[in-house]
């Protein structure tokens, strides 16, 4: 199945959607595909979905975001997110804020099939003041104070991994963040990989299989799906590209021109990559090979 | 020896770290401080980044919490919740954090500057907590880096993203937080620590060529001053050399990002390969 088909099949108007990735390994191809198909009124449930959240919010496709952080780290701020909260442009969204650990526990609870989990985060802070779903209680066993976060079971999980077989057994060589739990918590999981491989190869290093096939509904091979972000052992971060992107995103007009060129004006992710330039992408791959040579 | 204030802040935060400690560090100057400590007096310190990597020993600058450099020569890469759970359980000695606003009791705000508005309609929306709340809640102690400016130092922050000593005294303990709290606030003019009982910000050390009056000007309340006020030691040549080796293009310590072409970026990485940091 192609990513275009998988998104058509599983992501619908009003869906609750979770993206994998943390810093690197982000689901950029996936967010562009949803934006291209103009699937709206989404609820994002994510830890720090920098790029997917900022782009979909800018595209006006998000009605609610349950998140911990939205920005582009060293490259810049989440300008679409800022415009949305500060000026209600292009639309107002509802915000439900957590921390990274708090969100990761929501996915863990969802993956465990329990309604909530306790944590020592949030105590003494202002989170619960503005998010009524963060509750405080005394532990029935010890009396100590804990915060509770509700389980998250999104309609669709979109996750990108290093390699997978066609049954959706997904492996990571680098950071997997919450992929294991997002895949398990969601009703449907779309798994993309840098490389589709024979199951024989997966079976040689079974401990790398973070996402087991039984949690996955669609598998697509999408090389460079995290560009401009990095994918450990596959390609380095394209910081200069992001830097240009941030210059454009500073204004609403710049964002719209950017999206026309890289998202709406192209047919799919392959065309985005062509627009970026294959020579550049190969260089990103070669540099990563020099620092993190692939071992498998 | 010439140095910038940003370099001095990195050096001062590095000196907060002891050998053998586990450090949870955000990207940018906090991470440069942690790496500098590792290259000088704390060779067996272990750095953890939010993506789940522990103990990276990369040959290149770490550009983000999930950068490929985080898993380069690392000890382990864990699921995100696992690393944070380890912190909650007491395995992390020190967290290096920043924010847009800090208050009298070391509470930090990285959520929103309210201005004339409020949380729902703020003057300036910031990225949010990320893992900052978790680090401030459960690390053994935290080291805060923030420039000393009147708009950043407030009697009370607009939103407590990352808890410090809350309203002072034993209020942090009473809130149920298991341990920790800020040990130091490193600024571009001075270093603050906290009064052992009231838990209020206390001027502990001023940087070379800065006066107590310069510091007081930026603080909107009557500032406590330590009886043992020190002068911050200037960076050594070796420390500065290491910082320049870690960030050769000045991406974090200078304006390097503005002029960073693809060619320059690749050349920077190529040279990191040859001059292993």
Automatic annotation (TrEMBL), chain B:
Protein name: Glutaconate CoA-transferase
Family: Belongs to the 3-oxoacid CoA-transferase subunit B family.
Annotated coiled-coil segments of the chain: none
Gene Ontology MF: a single term: CoA-transferase activity
SUPFAM superfamilies, alphabetized: NagB/RpiA/CoA transferase-like (SSF100950)
Organism: Dysosmobacter segnis
Lineage: superkingdom: Bacteria
């Amino acid at each position: 199945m192609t990513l275009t088909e998988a998104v058509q099949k599983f992501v619908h108007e009003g869906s609750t959607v979770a993206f994998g990735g943390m810093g690197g390994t982000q689901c950029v191809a996936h967010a562009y595909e949803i934006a291209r198909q103009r699937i709206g009124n989404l609820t994002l449930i994510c830890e720090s979905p920098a790029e997917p959240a900022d782009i979909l919010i800018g595209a006006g496709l998000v009605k609610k975001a349950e998140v911990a952080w939205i920005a582009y780290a060293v490259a810049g701020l989440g300008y679409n997110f800022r415009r949305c909260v500060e000026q209600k442009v292009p639309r107002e969204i509802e915000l439900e804020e957590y921390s990274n650990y708090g969100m990761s526990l929501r996915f863990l609870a969802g993956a465990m099939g329990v309604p909530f989990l306790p944590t020592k985060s949030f105590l003494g802070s202002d989170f619960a003041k503005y998010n009524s779903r963060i509750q405080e209680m005394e532990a029935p066993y010890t009396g100590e104070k804990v915060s509770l976060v509700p389980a998250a079971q999104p309609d669709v999980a979109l996750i990108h991994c290093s390699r997978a077989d066609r049954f959706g057994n997904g492996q990571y060589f680098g950071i997997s963040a919450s992929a294991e739990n997002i895949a398990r918590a969601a009703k449907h999981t779309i798994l993309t990989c840098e490389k589709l491989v024979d199951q024989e190869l997966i079976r040689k290093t079974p401990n790398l299989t973070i996402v087991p096939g039984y949690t996955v509904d669609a598998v697509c091979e999408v090389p460079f799906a995290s560009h401009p972000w990095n994918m450990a052992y596959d390609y380095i971060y394209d910081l200069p590209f992001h830097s240009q992107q941030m210059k454009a995103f500073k204004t609403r007009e710049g964002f719209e021109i950017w999206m026309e060129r890289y998202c709406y004006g192209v047919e799919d992710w392959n065309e985005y990559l062509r627009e970026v330039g294959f020579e550049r992408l190969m260089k990103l791959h070669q540099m990563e090979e020099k620092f993190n040579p692939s071992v498998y | 020896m010439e140095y910038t204030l940003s370099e001095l802040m990195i050096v001062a935060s590095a000196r907060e770290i002891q050998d053998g400690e586990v450090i949870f560090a955000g990207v940018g100057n906090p991470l440069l401080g942690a790496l500098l400590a590792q290259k000088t007096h704390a060779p067996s310190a272990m750095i953890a980044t939010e993506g789940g990597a522990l103990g990276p020993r990369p040959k290149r600058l770490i550009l983000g919490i999930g950068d490929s450099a985080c898993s380069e020569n690392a000890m382990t890469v864990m699921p995100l919740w696992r690393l944070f759970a380890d912190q909650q359980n007491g395995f992390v000695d020190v967290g290096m954090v920043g924010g847009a606003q800090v208050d009298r009791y070391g509470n930090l705000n990285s959520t929103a500057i309210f201005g004339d508005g409020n949380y729902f309609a703020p003057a300036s929306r910031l990225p949010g907590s990320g893992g900052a709340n978790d680090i401030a809640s459960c690390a053994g102690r935290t080291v805060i880096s923030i420039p000393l400016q009147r708009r950043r130092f407030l009697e009370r922050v607009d939103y407590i993203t990352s808890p410090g000593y809350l309203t002072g005294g034993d209020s942090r303990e009473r809130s149920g937080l298991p341990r920790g709290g800020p040990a130091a606030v490193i600024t571009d003019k001075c270093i603050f620590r906290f009064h052992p009982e009231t838990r209020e910000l206390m001027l502990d050390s001023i940087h070379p060529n800065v006066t107590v009056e310069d510091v007081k000007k930026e603080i909107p309340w009557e500032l406590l001053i330590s009886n043992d006020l020190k002068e911050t030691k200037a960076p050594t040549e070796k420390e500065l050399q290491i910082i320049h080796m870690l960030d050769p293009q000045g991406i974090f310590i200078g304006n390097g990002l503005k002029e960073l072409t693809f060619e320059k970026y690749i050349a920077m990485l190529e040279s990191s390969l040859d001059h292993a940091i």
